[in-house]
Amino acid sequence: MLWMVMMAQAVAGDAGYDQVRAWAQRDEASLAPAAYAEMLDSMSRVGGAGFTRCMPTPAPETLAAFTVVLQLDAQGKVVRTWREGDAAVARCVDAGFAGKTLFVPPQAPFYAAFEFQVQP
Hints:
The chain has 120 residues and is of the alpha+beta class. It is built from four helices and three strands; from the N terminus they run αααββαβ. Strand 1 and strand 2 (78-84) form a beta hairpin.
């Protein structure tokens, strides 16, 4: 079992953003509705705290969209991130996820995506 976890981590280490984003879509789609809601709540809590900490003063009129893909271990701890978007706020929010514990996923590794977009 340990060998399988180590192998999965090695594969993830070589994966690029597009690959892990696809894994996040797969893993998120596999969740039961209650688990999906728990995942969203935990990511919103940590991501929201990141926005509070990272937002410059005064706040800009616009923010560029970004996505942070999170790799969770069996306890729900963020062990790695990949980011699409390079604005300062995106980098700061990404860094805020490091080492945080979110929800306990049904399998490990588990991939989830925190997406920020401004709706017109």
